Predict the structure.
Amino acid sequence: MALADARAVLPSLTTLPSNLFEDRKMLNRIVQWCERYSPWIRAEDTDNPDLLLEEARGAGLWLDITGCAHLYGGEENLLTDMISRIEKIGFTAHAATADTLGCAWAVARFAVKNCDWKIVPPGESRKALAPLAIAALRLPLTTVLSLHEVGLRYIKDLMNIPRGPLAARYEKNVLLRLDTALGEIAEPLSPVLPKIPLIARLAFAEPIGHLDDIARSTKKLLEELCKTLGKTDQGVRQMILTVYRPNGNTTRITIRTAYPNREPQHLLKLFAEQLHQIDPEFGIDEIMLFAATTEPLQATQTNLQQSLTTQNMKCYQAVIDRLANRFGSHNLRQVRFKGSHIPERATGFVPIKKSGDIQYITKKTLAPRPLRLLHPPEQIEIVAKSTDGLPTKFRWRRVVYRIERCEGPERIAPEWWHTNDKNTRDYYRVENKTGQRFWLFANNETTWFVHGIFG
Amino acid sequence: MPRNMTLPDKTTSPFSYHLRPRGRKQIEDLRSRIHALERPTWKREDNLFSLGIPEIDRLLPSGGFLPASLYEVFSDRPTDGGATTGFCIALMASFLGSRRDRILWCANDSATDIGELYPFGLVQQGLDVSLLTVVKTTRDCDVLWAMEEGLRSTAFTVVLGEVKKISMTSSRRLQLATEENGVLTILLRPSTETSGLSAAIQRWRIKAAPSYPKGFANSLNEPGAACWNTKLFRSRGGTPGTWLMEWCDETSCLSLAASVCDRQGQPYNTRLTR
C-alpha cells in the first residue's frame, strides 16, 4: 500500500522517515543478545531492500541451533522463549526451525501465519516448501516477476519442471536457491565473531586498604589493558574502574577522554583525582578495569624528534582531558560562529568537540561589538530622556549613569522564521562621562536593557 | 653643565644617567649578573615584546615586556571590568602578533560580574578567537588549578585567569611555573581586591577613560575608540607610571592618547601648535 493510500485511510497516521543505518545497529545489538541461544548467529544481509518483495524486507536473524536446543528443553521451548523475550523488548517476531537455512527463511516469512513460530520436522523440508510462493526462495523481484509471467508461481511448480531449461533461461541463482533450500547443496552459515570484552582484573589474597596499593594495582591493570588495546589498534574513550569489597559494596569510577588514548601514564593521572576518594572500609578484594568505549587509534611511529605540531597536539589533548575530567566537558568551551544576526545567537561558546577542527575566523567588519555580553540582558530604568527620545540618564544595578555620547540606533529585527519572536531591538552604543561604554537596546522601543560592556 | 654629567642614553635605565661611564658599566655588569641568577632559564633580551608604546618600554628593566612572566591586572572600580578585559586582550594580542598559538582563558563569574566574553568583540579588539579555549569555573582554587595545568602542559602560549583572591604563595608558584615553561600568564583581578603582596613582575590598575572620537564622529557626539587610564603601580626593576592609552580599531594598535591638547569644541581641520 502506498503512503498516500494509507494516509487516505487514516489521516492521523504518524509517519517517520526510515533510518536504515540505525535499524542495522539495532539488529546487531539483538544479534549479540541472541548469543544466549547459540554461539553461531548472524544478522541477515539484505543487499538492496527495494528489489525484494515486501515479506522479504524485514530484518532477520539466522541462528544455527544444532546441539543447543536441549539446553532449553527442546526446539519448541527455545522458540517460544526467544519470541516472548523479543516481544517484551517491543518487536513482533516470527521464527521457524528447519533443516536448511533456505527452508527456515521461507517458512518463517511466507508460511501461513497462524502462530508465531513453526518447526519443520527433519526431512520434511520438501513438503513444507512446496505450497509456498516462489519469492520464498530469496529471489529478487525481477526474477520472481519473470517466473510469474511463464506461470510458475509456487515452489512446487519449480520442483516439477525439468532443470535444464530453467538453468538455460534464468540466472543460476534460481536453481542454487532451490537446491540449498532442499538441502542438496550445503549452505554454511558464517557467524559473527563475538566481541572480546576489554576487561582486566586483579584479585587480592588479602584485602588491601592503602591508597598506594590501590594506585599501584590500577597502574598494573592499565598497563595490561593498554597492551591489549594496542594489539587491536584501539584507544579508549571511556574507562570504568570497579572496586569490590568483601562485604559486597562496590564503587565505580569513570573517566572519559576527549580523544582515543592508550597511554597508561595519562590515564592513571585522570584516575588519580578520584582514587583518593575511594573509601576502603574493611579492605578491597578485587579491582576490575573495563574499557567501556573504544575507538580506533592508529599506532604512531615514535620518532626521536617528533614534529612540533604532533607534540603540541598530544599535549593539547592531554590537558583537555585533564580539564574535562575535573570540570566536566560542558565547561570547556571554544568559539563557534553560527548563522544568525541576533547578537546572543550569532556566536557563542560551545563545548569542545572531539574532532578538533579549528574554525579560522577572519576579522568581521561589523558595527562595533562589546567585549562582554550579559546573559540575559539586564533591564535598566530610564531616569531622564532627551528631546529625541534617547535616554540621558539610566539606572543599572542601583547606580545612575549619565550618558555623554551615544551612537545608534542599530536595528536588529527578529528572525522571521521564528514566528513567536516579535521583539525588534534598537541598539545604542553609549558612553559615560567617566568613560564607561555600554551597549544598550530598546526592546520594541519601550523597555530598555543593557546587553554588553565595551572595552 | 657640570663636567661629570652625561646626557641620558636611551638604552639604559634612567637611574644610571648621572654616573660616569665607568660607573655606568659597572652597574650594567652587576645588573646582568643578578639577572642571570634570578632567571636562569630565559635570557634577558630573549623574546621581548612591546605594547607599541616606547614611553612604557623605556621605563621597563629589560627594555620591553618579558613573555615568560606573571602579569597582574586590576580594575579600578567595579564598572571598569570592560576596560580591564580590553587591556588584557591588547596585551595578549601584542605578544602573539600574527602567530597562531593557543590561548587558555579560565573564566570565573564570581570574580568578574559583567557577563561572558563575546567573540565578535574579541576579534575586533585584535584577538584570534579560533584558538581560544575557555574553562568555566566558579571557585578561585579551580581557576588556579586550571591555570597551572595549562602552564605545565606545553600546549598553550598564553594563560589568563580571573581570580578574586590569591595568596603570595600561590602567585609565587604561578610565577615559577611560568618561568619554567615560557608562557605569558595574566591574572585578571576585580576592583574589590586590595593589592597585597604578589610575585607578579608587573601590576596594573585599569580605569576607563572618556574616548576621543575623530572627525565626523566627534561632531555627531558618538563615542570613539576604547580609551583607558592605565597605571602601572608596581614593576619589578622598573619605574611605575600612568598612561592614557587608546586602542585604534583600524590599525589594531595601542597608542598613547594625546591628552595635552583640548579637543573639545574644535572644528575638524585645525591643528593646535604648541
